[in-house]
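Archive entry: two folds, one per protein. Generate the first.
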Amino acid sequence: MRKHLIILGIISVIAFLIRIQVCHELAAVDPQVSNPSSVTDMHTYKMLAAKIMKGEFDQVFYYQPLYYSMFLPAVNFCFGDSSNALIFIQCLLSALTVFIAALSATYIKNRAAGIVTAILLTFSTIMILFTPYYLIATLQAFWVTIILFLSVIIIRKFANIADSKPTVFYRWSALLGIIVGIAILTRGNIWIFVPGIAVMLTLLAPKKSKLKNVLIALTLFITTIILPQLPFAIHNTRITGKLTGPSTAAGAVLALGNTPEAPPGGRDPGAGAGPMEYPETCKYWGQNTKNVPVYKQITKWLIREPLPFLEIQFRKMLLFWDYREIPNNIAIETQGIKSNTLRIIGLLPIENISTPNGLRPSLIYNLVPMSLIILSLGFAGTLLFLIRLASDRNRKLIAKLKHNLCEYMLAYFIISYWLGTAAFYILGRFRVPIIPILAITGSIFICSLYSFIIKYRKNLSCELRNTILKKIVVTNIIILLISLYVVIFGNTVYRYGFESKIMSVIRPNGVISKVAPHTIMIRDNGPQSFGSWTPFELKQGQIIEKTFAKFAEKQITTPLQFKLKIFWLQPGSAEIELNCKKVTIFSKSRGLKDHTFTLDNLNNNCVKITPLNLQSQLFLFIDQQRDYKRTIINGTNPDGELVSGIYINEK
């Protein structure tokens, strides 16, 4: 074991050196490392930490507080306000994550699995990329790995002991609770691990006075989870005047991915770093939280439209496993390619493309090979564990769980984190913390498959055993192929092959949502992010007819507002006719603009658009992920819907 620990230590040191080198390269060329843009979370964390250091913080803890209220101030206090200090600490945390995850894999499976885990995480492109920035991902990945490691230690220590000492079990339960509580203060989705850990502690509690031991252990576990959060909850409660947890951002985050017009994630892969899309319903729900909390808005929508609600949850669940990285504050294609080291060790496919400023490197195919490998293997391992749990008919459920409890805890961590993240919103940085657990699970899967192949190739004399091994190998390969299909093609196949057809059935009237206290919006197109908005040029003589569904089974009343997305290729003006009413529109700059028109008549819920005089090149958009056959251009359906909407005043 000592030799193995040395090997893991050497790999972890290599991981540390790789991260230091990549951080050094990024710090030299990317201002976001030391001076993040004011529109990013990185800037927010840095500024909040500076306020706390100066004693000027007098507001509620909106985000989970640990990173900016304790971690960053502690780094600044010890080393000064320097991005170099943060880089060093986060590189160290990331390298420790590699070592601890590898050790967990060793304890769960064998030494080979530990080494494979260490190698996968050492060269994990996405884990390396986030290391130098003022973001939570690196710290949370460390906490998640520690929580799993402690769970594995507890299982190994108590699973096979007939009558262990209760006091020792209580101490381990309390220690695990403290770590979970601190991790929750980093990001609240760690709460999703609590039920599974509680079940684990229940199964492992000493048999003598079982009920008493379970109650004491769980009480200690929950109490120590809550204790680290109390100071922050008391602070928020005092300021808000009502009982509040350690952060107040949950509603806003929930609204991002759970409104009738929400995209499943932040930005399209390959779009580069930048802001997320905030649909109108999301903005309204966020502004109206004092009157109606976001969770109540979501509940109302779920009751009103259960199938569309479930569909967006499914889309987020599918997107979580997509091999491409979803950018936000930083991106592989923006920041990642600036590091030559990361481009080499991440196997990033780069080509030089022509731009107005000359040739520049660009990530092609949106391919991040290490993410593809870790996600596919992690998905395959989880699927294998679940199949094993379901197929073991010789034991009762509790006996089955205890038999391979470490593996089932791995599966639980992955599934609960996946579902918990999908319940909110999908971003690349939200997926980073579970990468170590996926690497462990994937390593166990690949080592098991390799072991079975070796055994099968030995041509065992026992024909029955040889047949069983062959079936196991074939089953594992099928599982791996299924995983590869889900990770590479799952989201794309659904998005372009099924989404428009399914939405036509479950949401035949398009999106109908309140976007102001007395304003209802009706639109047939989906969001721009993860949508298929296809531009077409507006030309004189065209006739575009956009029909909307009836609202509440009644004819839409007028006057009303009609909004249209128009891309101006250059500044200028244009005269168009809307339902026999001539209007002139202007733009002082190039780009995508929202234009709002007041309509006095709306025959059969239809808006007829006729370009009359165009002084600039204009483009409208057809969303080809929605097709209700309610858009007609020159008498032909374009297999999509015009990106537009009508707004009805309910007064």
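Generate the second and append.
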Amino acid sequence: MIANEGWTVDFELLEQRYAATYAAQAQRVLRIGTRQDLTVPYQAAKSVLAIDALAFALPLPVEKGSMDVLYVQCDTVQVDLLWFFIPEMLRVLSPTGTALLVVPRPAPAMARERVAAMLADVLATQGANSRLLEWLELTSDAGEVVLVVGPPGAGGRIAPSYPDACFVWSAQLLTVGGEALHCNLCGSKCFLPGPEGRMASNGRPPRCQGCGSLERHRVVQKVLAAAPAGFLGERRLLLVGDATGVPTSWFASTDRVSMEDVSAPRSPHYGAAIACHALEFVRDDRAAFDRLLELLAADGWLMCVFPGVLEREVGVDAEQSAPFHRYGRDVITRFDCAGSELHVLEIELRDPGCGVPLAAHIYTRDPQIARQMQRWLGMDDGFRIRAQMLPERRGAIAKDPFAPLRAELELWQASGRSCLFWWRDDDLVCASPELNKMALVAAEASVPVLAAVIPARAHDRLGEDTRGMTGLSFCQHGYAHKSHAAAGALSSEFGSGRPPAEVAREIAEGRQRLRGLFGARFIPVFVPPWNRIAADFVPLLEEYRFLGLSQYKDEPSHPDSKLIVVNSHIEILRWSAASKATCKPTPALVLELVKLLAERRLGATEPEPLGVLSHHVAMKDDAWLFMRALFAVTAEFSVVRWLSGAEIFSAARKGAA
């Protein structure tokens, strides 16, 4: 037992709970430790291999990928020993295996940043064999450490046992097969959490252990490196704010200033200016931007890197505290021309160190410079460039694609009526980075999501892998998502013509399997694949104790059924004939939402909750950006509520129906 003022960690109890969590499914357990009774909690396992001490265990005497559970309990673990152990741990664990490392008295050098860097470095060298892992650290004020390493959801299985504990860091570390992630400033492949433990938006640690650079620093250097030799060497550089990542030796000369000193009198002959994460800390950012342009020579250019512009559609201003501005994708229209036409290059690229997408913006009055830089950057496949000319003068207002939705919600707000939404996501079968993204977006916005699971294709560990995703509940998405329709007919798994006995068996087996996977998190709601089910089969849903049925838009209703029928009404993806999906344009989606809301407000349609339908497995960055922006806009209005599946499909509502 280890006790502290804040909370207590009982390692023996933790071990027992860990064993109880995994032993039912674990076939093979490897335990390493100085205590002789460590095997006892794993009696339910098929096999248990015990090793007395880690120091005498390397290399581990087991085959690659052969262990489901790895439990390590040590009095001390030296950093050097752990360095050799992490690759062995990853080697012996199965793809769904989980490790628990209990280190009651770690060496002083074993800071969590150092341990995290080791794991990140090992992952970066895995290549095609890499995988998504969750790394959760449970620590006390005295420094005792428990490390949980496993697939997504691994930490969530431990967390419920310690509701008062301090989970100082929980992150997913991802390496992509074939992608060589490294710092382009110093060449290091080892990365740590950023300031205050911050992780990049894709879950990776962003700070280079070698040079301390962050995402923005490496992006600046990558853009500058695309220019031909000699182009930068002729220019005098004005460097505003952070100088990390800017190779000043590539320029003829360099002056450094803070953002506050930009307005001081200076000679306007700079051939280049770079402002990286600077303008957001200036209250009057437009005036500061214009001053930077005034300091440029006729053929000069300004490069800005704004934080988070790819993570939100529309920027937000704050009046009281810095940063005063959180920019969005509309930043390209925020800074208008200061006296003449301004050419803008918006460059999207991925940080070479952690792979997260970022954007850099280059502004110039010289059209020849704009064309040259567009040509040079366009030669690199890693850049995505959008050129745009902005002739607007000061005071131009950026168009807000969500303005129509805000106007409609203001009408709801004035009426005082509740405006109800709900989120349904289809085709869940297994843990994946896309599922993690959905859970993260739902948690950030406090918006629940009802995930429709395909029973016959669901992974055996899906229930465990989603244990920590508290914003998700689960319902039944057909059986195997296999169409039985005749050639030329619309796809349907439960269309007319199928034998009723066969359909009944699939519905019953699917319900039983999902109930076993998710327990109380399963809501007995049936979502037919392709949103179609023959009327003859609807009574079977009542027979097998389903509460609700959910389809899409105007699919045939079933007035004689006692089921709660609540459909989804707007799908954010557009599907091609080859089942390829792209996100619908934001303006089109917004207008569709406004139309549906107005019909409800005016009483033209039934006032059921407006259902937003997604398919997480097919969604790209633009689709997630839309969802985040939608949640942010609706959060501005107190009359808007996002309902959970349990609220929509409840036994009380069924009785009332």
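Annotation attached to the second fold: The first helix runs from residue 11 to 23. The chain has a mean pLDDT of 78.
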